[in-house]
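Morning. Coffee machine broken again, so started the prediction first thing and wrote up yesterday's gels while waiting. Chain of 268 residues, entered below exactly as on the submission form.
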Amino acid sequence: METGSEVMRKGGRDSMEKTDAQTGRQGLNRDVIKYIAMVTMLLNHIAHVFLTRGTVLHEIFEDVGYFTAPVMCYFLVEGYVYTRSKVRYGLRLLLFTVISQMPFYLALRISTEGLPFMCNMFYTLFCSFLLLVAREKIANPVWRGAVCAMLVIATIIGDWQIFAALLVLLLAQDWGDRKKMMMHYGMIAFVYFLFITRNYMWENYGLPASLLHGFLGCSGILAAGVVVLFCYNGRRAKYGRNFSKWFFYIFYPAHLLVLYLVSVLMQR
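Came back before lunch.
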């Protein structure tokens, strides 16, 4: 009997790469897309650390950053399907969850807003990884559904809570079907549009301004879907693969720590 990963592998990247070959489209490799996502994340965090909320530059940098998490979700699912060792993959995510927590708190001056604790994006990705494990390994549909629901709820204390976990589940469900996967990106973007619009309405921004913020916020999610589904060629960079692999992990806590140290120096 085939596992969920085997089914996803057969219907996933191979079919999409075949379409790319047939159309002659070159596209962007995985590392290029990840580097773009790191830049957009950096801009988002610069906005939170250094810029005044409500200014044009802050809003641009913040909204551009919404591109990053949906890209991470896609590559998490792809990594789960094709990794040589799911155990090592999960342990790396857990390790960098721990490593990144203090820089996350220091740089972004996290406000828990009534929650007992707030965790970084690696925590959310780790919970999403466990969702994929539960989806594959738990045969009983009732237990599988219960465990998945608990893991989604667990992301409430994480960065990009709930949305990332749901997107990962949806992408895994229809892995390899570009049309359905893009629909999932669109659905998450629409819900996020409502979420952001509501938040700005609560802050008395007025309906037009709130709708604009909602639209800009969801645009990054849609852009991420277009890039990974229609611009990605399914390949890694030809050179520096091992360097890029670890750089993507290390960059997250490292850039947060640098932003914090710069902010401290600027206050002196």
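The CA atoms of residues 118 and 157 lie 5 Å apart. Going to sketch it on the whiteboard this afternoon.
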